[in-house]
Amino acid sequence: MNPESNPSIPDALVQSLSPCRSAVALTGAGISAESGVPTFRGAQTGLWAQYAPTELATPEAFESNPRRVWEWYAWRRQLVTEVQPNAGHVALNQILEGFARHQLVTQNVDGLHQIAGASSVIELHGNLHRTLCSRERTPVQEVAPQASPPACPNCGSPLRPDVVWFGESLPADALHLAIESTQSCDVFFSIGTSGTVYPAAELPFTAKRNGALVIEVNREPTPITDVADWSFHLEAGVFLPRLQEALNRFRH
Ligand code: OAD
Fold first, then answer.
1. What would the pLDDT profile of 117-126 be if each residue is shown by its tens digit?
2. Complete DSSP assignment for 175-196
3. Whose CA is closest to atom 22 on ligand 1?
4. Which of 85, 120, 145, 205 has the maximal Cβ count within 10 Å?
5. Which of the residues 89, 125, 129, 176 is marked catalytic?
């Protein structure tokens, strides 16, 4: 572990990245914080400091109060439609494109990586912009919000956001692909995640066990810091553009 609080990029880091051919980046709410999207575990402003997950982000909560759950997610969806990707999202795409093989894996449901131009994103926890029939589990195109929640046009069951709630499994294909990419990567970036929600939180450890270089970027130390080869306690929107510049200088 090499904790760094100086925003300059060490030459040794750039040199250790130069032989790497494949990269995986796992992102969490921290990368979108500088766009104005609240994180989950911030002490004052984090969503879980203000709202009880059990009342909003579980299948039981939806069953007992579908309107409240639907409206909370509609509020969050509105919030993310009003923000833009930040310098961290953009620089991360450029950093990843510098590797022959690369995979972006996110726990975020805001779609900001895609708006920033990411070519392929594994979404482990779903996406706020998509809607499912709660009974059939099939995707439903946006319907006029005639009710809260609206009814499935096919079977009349309430629609739900296509996000993973506590107690639910992650989408199997997405998880499989994330694990597979992680097992075979040369470098693994963990960016803006508290590393507390499994199975996503296992990925940096999987990468390390399989011999990858692990680089963490987070405002604060996390459980991932212990396994990281490099840990930078900085804003992603500050660190990632600097890393991108340093890699560009090295490659040209
Ligand atoms: P958290 O809110 O748990 O953690 C956000 C992390 O980002 C914290 O460790 C912060 O220190 C860090 N952070 C904040 N601002 C940052 C910045 N500008 N640059 C770098 N780091 C910053 O969010 P996640 O780890 O994404 O799941 O949470 C994981 C899952 O828990 C979420 O996907 C969500 C939640 O419950 C579901 O809803 C299923």
1. 998 999 999 9
2. HHHHHHHHHT-SEEEEES--S-
3. 30
4. 85
5. 125
